[in-house]
Amino acid sequence: MIRRVELLNFKAHGKASVRFGEGVNFIYGPNGSGKTSIMEAVSVALFGSQWVKRAGGRWSDYLRRGASSGEVRLHLVHAGAELLVVRRFGEGGSVPSGTYLAVNGAVVARGDSDVTAALAARLGLGVEEYRQLLYIRQGELRRILQEAEYLDRVLRLDEFDKLDEVLREVLNELRARRERVGGRAEELEKRAQFLKTRVDALRRELAELEVRLRGLESVKNQYAEVKERYAKLRERHAALAKERETLEKKLEELAQTSLDAEREIERLEAELGEIRRAKEELRSLPQIGDVEKEYFELRQLVAAAERVPQEVRSYDPAKLEEARRRAEDATRRLAEVRSRLELLRDVVRLAGRAEGGVCPVCGSPLRPEAVKRHELEVAGLEREERRLEELVEELRGEVKRLEALDKLYHANKDYVKVDLAAARRRLAELEKAYNEKREVEKRRAYLTALAEREGDVEKRLAEARRRLAEAEAKVGEVGERLREVEKEAEEVERKLREVEATYSQLEEKFKEYNILSGRVDTLRRQLEEAERELGSIAGELEKAKTELAKLDGALGKAKNMRAALGEVKPMARQILLRAINEELNHVFLKLRHKESFKSAHLADSNGRYVVRVATPTGYIEHGLLSLGEQNLLALSLRVALARALLGGAPFMMFDEPTEHLDEHHRRKIVELIRELTSIVPTVIVTSHLGEFEEVADQVIQL
């Protein structure tokens, strides 16, 4: 058994050590990673120059680029002894001083040829047996089945072929023709037998189905009648369900309508109360004189005075005027706030002296909520007063700053003809009066419009009350109809359940009838096609048998001619075949994946090797098997040859055995190699795909 191989400057490997164990050793890595180099290293270690010559290469082919020398060390266990093979080499060949064989630590041979001879004697293994049986290189697994001379080379029987080279060409042609015709005849026989069996089966099945079909003929009319009744009931049930849903929805809508009407009544009643209060307020609004004309004329005058002359660009007098206006507005607002504040404070003080809720000055009613509102307004105005005081102070500072600039401006051009301050004060007074009048008129318009709606609101209120009454009446009508629909729906649903049971039973039988009818039609077509094909095949088979008889006669004559050359080779072959077949059947039964494969044996068929697999219906030659089954036979035959010729296969190596195969056949190879470990102690396999990981006992990743 191979234990370990160590490489130094060998092909792609600078320095590497790979350990192997019993079972499947999987060397895994991408293309170009040096997987094949490891197997080549084992071959070089075992056979040295013999291997290099037989492989058709040179020692320099195994040397790493740039290195002057390389070395391979192979550790083996055989018959209980530890073997170490060391081979050192350079570009010109093996280095004698660095090539030796050690057994249990003692060197027993040195030099390339002596080490090879000592190993061959101890292992009982020659380079040809190793190359043909134990090391299966990429794409060569089935070569043992594909090349007739392959086995002869392994068995050393190829020398006999030189004696009858001319006859071999003739025989090969006859055998090829016979194999083709025989294969076709076998295929036709199998197909004819299959078709006969199929025709009989189709006839029996067709007769049975026709009987069953006649028994179901009555189901069609019953099914149509029940189906129509069932459909009407379902339609009525659906219509009632839809009507019930509509009525329930109508009830919801009517309830919502009632609720909406009640809400609208409440809203309209509240709005009517508001209108009546508005009418009272309208009568108490004050009358303000006409100030619009004076206000708009003064506003236009101030706007014209504030315009800046076009020729002055570096200074904008409007800024000063604006600052003054803002200061005056703020001062005015402050004065207004103070005036309003003083007035409200007087009101609050008077309210404090009021008796019986009557103003002591005017005798008007003075309610607590009005007093509270005035107190809150006083607090707000006091805050506004403080804010305006700060704003007025800030604006006055801004006006002083701008006035300094304004002096420079007036030194160059005196354009101010209007007293803007007085105009702005008057304008502010007019604006206040104008705004007050607008607010009063706006309020008057609003209250007037509100008062005018009284009649419309009363009319809408009456309409809402009418809608409420109508909705409540319709609720009763819809509720009564809903009860009628629910009662009828219960009755229809009861009838529907009764009919549904019968319908389901008939439906299943009707489906069965349709399926049987379709199956009968299909069987009739299939029967016609099978009978037509059977007639055609019978004619082809008769022609093939006639041609086979002629080819067999020609082959018989050719064999007799070859027999005259001597019987030594056939006798030797038969002796070897018996020894091989004893091992082949044993190995094949261990590796097979089909119970229908009963045995396998290697036969000499008309001068060529044929592996035949016995099945319950006869034997099958290897050429008629699938690719995966041919792999099984090829592997079994290699192991059997190793056992017959070498006494056993101590190890086997496979280089990319799944290359160029599809996934199905790659899986078959994986299974075969896993099963192979029951016969071969150590198996080494390489692949750039990972399919062997699941069966490997050891994974070596490069």
Task: Give a verbal description of the structure.
The chain is an alpha/beta fold and 702 residues long. Among the domains are: 2-170 and 568-701, Rossmann fold; 281-455, Helix hairpin bin (Helix Hairpins), CATH 1.10.287. The chain is 66% helix and 13% strand. It has 16 helices and 15 strands. Strands 1, 2, 4, 5, 6, 7 and 8 form a 7-stranded antiparallel β-sheet that branches. Strand 7 (100-103) and strand 8 form a beta hairpin. Helix 9 packs antiparallel against helix 12 and helix 10 (317-353) runs antiparallel to helix 11 (368-412). The longest helix has 110 residues, at 454-563. The protein is elongated. The two termini are 22 Å apart. The model is unreliable at 308-313 (pLDDT under 50).
